[in-house]
Amino acid sequence: MHDMHEPEEPKWIHAILSLVLRGEDAEYILGDLSEDFRRLADSSGPSEARAWYRRQALRAVGSRFVRRPRSFEAWRRDVRIAARRVGREPSYSLTTVVTLGLGIGGVAAVASLAASVMRPLPFPDARDLHAVWEIRDDVRSGVAPANYLDWRRMSRTFAGLAAHQTRSVSITAGGSATRARIVVVSGNFFDVLGVAPRVGSGFEPELEVAFADRIIVLSHDASMAIFGSERPIGRSVLIDDAPYVVVGVMPPGFSFPEEGVQGWIRSPTEAPDIRGFEGDLTEMRDAWYFEVVGRLAEGRTVADARAEMASISDRLAELHPDTNEGRGTLLVPLLEQTIAGFGAIMVALGIAVGLILTGAIFNLTHLTLARAESRGTDFAVRLALGASAGDLRRSAFAEGWLLGLLGAGLGIALAHLGLTAAVADLGDAIPRASSVGLSPLLAGVAALLGLAVGTLVALTSVPAKRPLPHVRSEGASRTQGRRLIGVQVAVAIAMVMGTALLTGSVMRVGSVDLGFETDRLTTLRIAIPDAASRAYAERVSQYRGIADALRAVPGVSEVGIGSDAPTQLGPRAGVVVEGRPPESNPPDAGWQPVDQAYFEAFGMQVVRGRAFSGADGADGPDVAVVNEAFARTVLGGMDPIGVHVTMGLDGHDRPLRIVGVVADTHTRGPMNPPGAVLYRPIDQTTSSRAESALLALKWSTEPSDALAVVRRVVRDAAPGLPLYSLGTGDDLVRPFVRAQTLLLTVMGVFTITALAIGMIGVYGVGLHTVRRQRRAIGIRLSLGATGHRITREVVQRGLGSALLGVPPGVLLAILVGRSMSRLLFELGGTDVRLLAGSVSFVLLLTACALFVPARAAASFDPARVTKEA
Amino acid sequence: MGKVLGEFEQMILLALVSLGDEAYGAAIRREIVRRTGREVSPGAVYTVLERLERSSLVRSSVGSPTPERGGRRRKHYRLRHEGARLLLESRSRMRRMEEGLLVRLDELAAGAD
Fold first, then answer.
1. H or E segment at A162?
2. 0.80 exceeded by the pTM?
3. With contacts defined as CB-CB under 8 Å, which chain B residues touch A56?
4. Per-residue pLDDT, A467
5. Which of A81, A178, A716, A736 maximizes the CB count within 10 A of its CB?
6. What is the pLDDT of residues A433-492, one digit of tens each?
7. Are residues A238 and A382 in the same domain?
8. A742 and A681 within one domain
């Protein structure tokens, strides 16, 4: 009778029934249903049997729940009562809702931020994508063309390795030029990323093929902005005055390697070209100027790829010891690369909100306990009027959940506002900021969190099967209070320490001697589109013309021209020092063309020899000025003046005589040591990098509208030329401290929140304690104790509890410090002075919070309080 | 004794009399459906049986699992002496109430006013 085709009862109904039916009857009822189901299936067919089963199941379930129809009604009533009660005790309700809202809001905001920033990259199998860097002496650099081509030939672990280099260019369409970011890429770029143009085609992935055609794939946004069309295939745009044909348009939202890229152009050679460079890129191994992204081959792991790239590097070092000795590769998962360092910020913020939520929940618990005591009479009255213990429990839950949901609602609103504000003000410090927002899922989780805390509140206010709150022992309550003060103090210490570390770090960064003067400084970049007809000298003279116009502005003391700011290294190249045995390891350095006023305008000190002068023109002898780091690391401490060096980029194979040494500037930002830089007179180079120039203005008296003045003068002197990156000296430094500034801002807000929550808690405990002891205090006052003494004792006792929080607080503070040590500058995560300061500050604040209720205790009227029951 | 049995309780107890050794939840339910045509939910049957057992009117014993029940056991019920007496009392009380009234009741039900 038990054959294979035997009909089965509907599975999911059966599952629900098994869940709903409890107790020993469940087995018999389920057994009966199965038995009857089979009989009916035999007699009337399976479908009828299933219908019957469903009907019966519904009834069986119904009979379990409908047995007490009163319950639903009672719930409704409980919610009504709860709402009324919440309204009647506004200070308790408000404190609860706000505390909870702050806690949940912080968690929701940080979780949203993490979810948005850390979400997978929008490429198929994005985990297989890795950025590949060259590395030497632990300093990573871009990739050299010949090395890149060898990687592509030799690697088996990568399905594809694509090269890309982002450039600032002028795009001209319909007569007006705008500055834009475009990416010069190898032919396999889109294949490696796994994203095809939405309209038109991509590029042909052919190695070592020179392309005559200049072709570009536009971003969706650029296509709309330039042509007002989604399919401008075959139309042309001018990129730096050269015509390019549009062959494709990417899907909306695609932008790689950074946000806001307007287009991707196929490099004429497979490795991105160097404009104006006539030599053979396929042989060049000593200029590292572009980036590489690789996709792992099917079934290969990162470990495979690392091992293979290491052996390729070794092989290349054997073949080309001059350039490749000591060079390795570094693989970074693309997501990690994209959110660069933001993970550390997320960890720090995660710890911070965790602490805030802990503080908030402890506060709520204590608040509710304290109130439960004062509500003991209320419960007793309701019990006497015939309410059952179950009734009281239900109403406590209704109230807890109502408060919890209100708190969650406030938290969601705060998180939404906070995220919006953060993206608006600090968006440029948040990677992938355009997509940051509160997701419905997280809002749901926040609501659940609210319910959970509400449950906790309910459980606290009516402990099931325990003596009713009003008979709870005094000792238990005091322990609760002490524990709360301890927890709040611990949380506060950790948060204050975090903020102190960040503040100290940002201040230290601010006080670093950058090697140049940022005050009364204005910098800007001018670009001259790269037309073949415009010779290098012609461009330089146009920059000079603009500089002269600016020099004539009242209050300007000097205007310098260069390729880069002192916070940049410039392109790197290997150096050969004349008179020294050829080393297998030519030390490399950055190099920058500058005019004779550049050092003066930036206030860079000439420490030896001389700066450039009018004599260092195109016809003069080839000279160079180096910085101290160059003298130290490249020249190995030999006297630099008079030494001849050769640098291998842009055809500078002539020896340059060093005529001066300038003080170091922080070429990789204030947090990193200065790099070695060689400066060349702007007239003695034929740099391909002259398509744009940096102008630096030093003011003797800076007008308040300096930027507007500069903009106007440049517009008049050079109409139609793109002017960009206009800013003050501080703007040069800001990008280096963005992450710190972001974290400091958010941490500051969180710390204030945590302190507010903590001190409300401490104050609450203090108030509760003195209220509870008012009779004892009153008696002592009437026996002659002074108010002053009472106040002191209350504060002292509170501080005693606070001290219990110091050791865990210090541990937490160390944890917080460790979590952000990567973001700190010249400060250990466990700086003892800051730690001591944080502890003292929090204890002082705690004393203040205790002082208020303590004063209240001192002013009790003994005659009144001793009479109270 | 003052205890009065409701109609559903009486039906279940009568089904126990009818079924003898074969009285368990599903069988009881089927017996009621067969005799009265009234659909009864299994949950309700057990709720009532549990109440009757607590009042010592029936006693139960657990049988062995059977494949047609998905390997679950049956719970058999038997009428106890007290149950039988109370059922008898309830039935005869009802009959005494009905005596000589059924003809009139028929007329009223047929629509005579």
1. strand A158-173
2. no
3. 41-42
4. 42
5. A736
6. 667 777 888 888 889 989 998 888 887 776 444 444 444 455 666 777 788 889 889 989
7. no
8. no
- Residues of B within 8 A of A36 (CB-CB) are 26, 29-30, 42
Q: Are residues A790 and A677 in the same domain?
A: no
Q: In this structure, are A312 and A273 located in the same domain? A: yes
Number of compact structural domains in chain A? 4
Q: What DSSP designation does A236 have?
A: E
Q: Which residues of chain A from 540 to 599 reach within 8 Å of chain B, CB to CB? A: none
Q: Are A644 and A656 in contact (CB under 8 A)?
A: yes
To test the contact with chain A by mutation, choose from B12, B41, B48, B76 the residue with the greatest count of A C-beta atoms within 10 A, namely B41
SS3 call for A216: strand
Q: Chain A residue closest to B61 (CA)?
A: A28
Q: What is the DSSP string of A19-35?
A: HH--STHHHHHHHHHHH
B7-110 is classed CATH 3.30.499.10:
no
* Residue numbers of A between 18 and 47 with CB closer than 8 Å to B: 21, 25, 27-36, 38
Residue A427 and residue A380 share a domain: yes
Checking DSSP bridges between strand A656-662 and strand A644-647, what pairing results, if any?
A: antiparallel
Cβ of B43 and A38 within 8 Å? no
Contacts with A551 (C-beta within 8 Å, 6 or more apart), sequence order: A558, A559
Write down which residue in A50, A67, A84 finishes a domain: A67
Contact A625, A661 (CB under 8 A): yes
Rounded to the nearest angstrom, the minimum Cα separation between A69 and chain B is 16
Q: CB under 8 Å to B103, separation ≥6 — which residues?
A: none
Please tell me whether residues A237 and A173 are part of one structural domain: yes
Compute the nearest-CA separation of A76 from chain B (Å): 27
List pLDDT tens digits, range A13-61. 777 777 666 666 778 888 888 888 888 888 888 888 888 888 887 777 6
Tens of pLDDT, residues A171-217: 887 766 777 889 999 888 999 999 988 888 878 665 445 555 688 99
Domain ranges of chain B: 7-110
- For residues A49 and A163, membership in a common domain is answered with no
Nearest CA in chain A to B23: A32
Does A440 reside within a domain? yes
Is the pLDDT at A568 greater than 90? The verdict is: no
Q: Is the pLDDT of residue A108 over 80?
A: yes
- pLDDT exceeds 80 at position A520: yes
Q: Which helix (H) or strand (E) holds A366?
A: helix A342-374
**Residue ending a domain, choose from A325, A354, A381:** A325
Residue from A98, A106, A101, A100 nearest A495 by CA: A106
In a domain? residue A519 = no
- What is the rounded CA–CA span in Å between residue A554 and residue B73? 103
Is residue A549 exposed (0-12), middle (13-18) or buried (19+ Cβ within 10 Å)? middle
Separation CA B25–CA B35 (nearest Å): 16
CB contact under 8 A, A60 and B26: no
Residue type, A561: I
Same domain, A637 and A779: no
Tell me the pLDDT tens digit for each residue of A136-148: 877 788 898 999 9
Handedness of CA A450, A456, A461, A462 (dihedral sign): positive
| Minimum Cα–Cα distance from A24: chain B residue | B75
Tell me which residue range forms the domain holding A426: 342-509+738-865
CB contact under 8 A, B69 and A32: yes
Nearest residue of A to residue B68 by CA position?
Answer: A35
Q: Which tens digit of pLDDT belongs to each residue from A217-240?
A: 999 999 998 888 888 888 888 887
Query: What is the Cα–Cα distance from A211 to A214, expressed in whole angstroms?
Result: 7
Q: Is the pLDDT of residue A4 over 50?
A: no
CB contact under 8 A, B75 and A28: yes
Report the C-alpha gap between B29 and A301 in whole angstroms: 65
